Amino acid sequence: MDRDNGPRVRVPEQRAPEKPGTADALRFTVLGPVRAWRGSELLSSGSPQQRALLAALLLREGRTATASELIDAFWGEDPPSQALATIRTYASRLRKILGQDTLVSESGGYAIRTDRAALDLTLAQDLAGEAEKARAAGDRCQARTLINKVLGLWDGEALASVPGPYADNQRTRLEEWRLQLTEARLDLDLEVGCHAEAVSELTALTAAHPLRERLRELLMVALYRSGRQAEALAVYADTRRLLAEELGVDPRPELAQLQQRILRADEELARPADEPAPAPAPLRPAQLPATVPDFTGRSAFVAELGGRLATAEGSVMAVSAVAGIGGVGKTTLAVHVAHQARRHFPDGQLYVDLQGAGARAAEPETVLGSFLRALGTADSAIPDTLDERAALYRSTLDGRRILILLDNAHDAAQIRPLLPGTAGCAALVTSRVRMVDLAGAHLVDLDVMSPEEALQLFTRIVGDERVGAEREAALDVVAACGFLPLAIRIAASRLAARRTWTVSVLAAKLADERRRLDELQAGDLAVKATFELGYGQLEPAQARAFRLLGLADGPDISLAAAAALLNLDPHAAEDLLEALVDTSLVESAAPGRYRYHDLVRLYARACAERDEEPVERESALSRLLDFYLATAAGVYALERPGDRLADHREPTQYSGLTFADRHSAQDWLYTEANSLLACVRQSSGAGAVRRAVDLLWATKDLAESGANSKQYEAAAITMRDLARSSDDARAEGRALITLTNARLVAGRFDQAERDAQRAMRLARAVDDPLPSCWAPNDLGIIALYQNRHAEGEAYLEQAIANFRADGNRPGEASALCNLSRIHLAMGNTTNAVALAQQGIDIYDELGHALRGANGRYALGLALTQSGRFADATEQLHDALAVFRDSRQRLWEGMATFRLAEVDLAAGLPAQAATKSEQALAILRGIGGEWRRGNVLTVLGRALSEIGQPGRAQVCWREALEIYETLGSAEIETVRKLLVPTLPG
Fold first, then answer.
1. 3-state class of 898 per DSSP?
2. pTM of the entire predicted model
């Protein structure tokens, strides 16, 4: 749109509606320009009047339009004298284009005969009908997806540029339907919890349709659920004022009731609609081990396995195999499910503990003997051999409906003879080994409990009163148990047996990781003993891998990183890891990634301390650090060609991965983020601190991603403290620069300045070029944000000189772009444009995509202040695309905010409000309060200009609170905006 009179909703590029059949089939669109395709070829539809005839016929969806109806559609009450001849001429031309079988003449009129799927409108109607059905069935996500598909069929204004009163009426009808669909989709957005994302679109829509109360209602809910109660109430006040001024009416009752619910801080309103809970299956005890009275959670697994058993009657041998580590609750779950499924197996249930985790697993022929006796077979009739017993067993089960629970199986070979072979029977198997070689089995991997389930189990054993008094301590206990059911049961049983203990006493005992496994013992239950059964069955190479991999602190580990830690080639490492997965001592988190349960990791470390020499443990972690540093430095070099980190970083003895392009390199970096930062925090040994600090430096992009900013800052603080305690000035200086970067991202400029000042002093003392260059660059940025422009200019000129002395051209470009912003703040617009362009030229010459986007961001700011809005928008859009592609959420949000500033300056307040809301959503949890205050200030200006002064005042008041808390220079600017409402 050229005018600022409505939302600019981005939809997928319109294509002709897809139709199954021949490649040259005709297809049509009316939800945008009226067009016709034959296959992929766009057909000429002639003059606007000829397109009007095509549109009129298409909108009748195959029904015949008489000549008089068409004349009325074209000209209304004032047709020309040759109207009928004109209609016939247009029809003749269209028939030549479309074919006589498509445009037919009948009963003195015309019709277009085509399939429903050939017209975008009928396709949209069908999809909308499917969406209604999905929503009625409770499938909100599917309904939302379908409505988005419908809205994606629009390509601007329906029947664009088609003349005539009929087209005008249909345009209005279709636009109203589009709005109704948009409201329905936004309603679904709120139901599934996407309230923050919906605010920006609703802000634009309410500006374009200010009297549409349903949109105002949705906006109020979205704001309230986003924690913006005052703004939600301001929307109501703005709506009430507008309706009174424009129509002389009050808001509809639903809107007034919503205002009251918000005033009451209605908790139900604050929560998205919950999905309907599955109905619990009845408990039916039978000839099985007794189910535990405090069975807790696992509802999804209960439903999944129960569903399989419920349908066993119509299948041949339904087999479900549950796998997981020792203590995860496989037997408890299986017994519970078997009890619930008893009514489906009226002929009985069989159970056996196959002792698969022990040294002597049960023999299949022995088990078959006991099963046959339970089924009524006399001892004298039971054969001697395994095959004969298995055959008799299957014959005995024929025609019966029996459930067989095979608990604690060793492997698939042990249970194959025990499986029924006829319809109506089912087997439920538990094992520490995944039964991948059991044909036809339904495999279930059982993980630990959720925190809620774990706390519920703990409470059922200990009692509501004790847990309720110390809920936080109870959460600490179940977390220390790694949410493992066996560990929780042991801990709870110890506490229940000791009335003088508080929950806090138990939590304190479990806080010591070195003693935790010893504490988790009660009677004949012990977590360590459960793990030892599995560990004792490992081959030597598997046991070594199990011990050493447990040393790494990350939440999981990739195959490549594990190979480095183990000093093996990837194929050999994979064989060992997959063997550990099969024993359930290690989990496969995703293809090529592995992880330990927390308590299993503690056990693995205990084994490593007992069975590995200290030098081997240190060497394993050193190889892992080398691998991460070498790989991360390669990623850094791909993102920043010409940067000098490669020349100044610590050397590594173990090589890393290489990548063909920056996108695959970024994928690795963000996938490994948590493991990388864990490795940094763990690297406290002699000779490791410097490499760990350089690893932090090489992963600076993680600080700006938003997802990893807090973890990055915590790792930087750890390394600063370690370097300081070991009197390593070089490592401390570099760690301080990484910390400065993290605090700049968080908007804590005073802390960032102190860190950068100390880093600069340390760098001079040890002559380290990296912080010598970057410290003054960062200090210049901080001075810019704090309006100390002359000081910032001096810092940045020093940074430029240092970068040039080190031959660091990307660093020089960064400082030039930052200096551009200083000149812009000082009013030197021409210099600002020139400096930013110099930085961009260097970046482009070196092939810097991401840093080049930072340069274009700076240039966009300068062009905005120069009044060159179109050029500024182009630069900022280019930067935004790169930031988004590079997963730099901070800069994505800031570029969106700057585009809002351009729109506001260009007189497009509705677009500015939309982009400001988008920026707030993107910057949620990153960027700090100062940046949020800046966005709120611009949002308030935009809202004020589109007739929402109440919301504008709320935004400015929140911005003022932020600035007053921070002591920012922007206080007076916002105070002036609030002058009409400030007291005194």
1. helix
2. 0.65
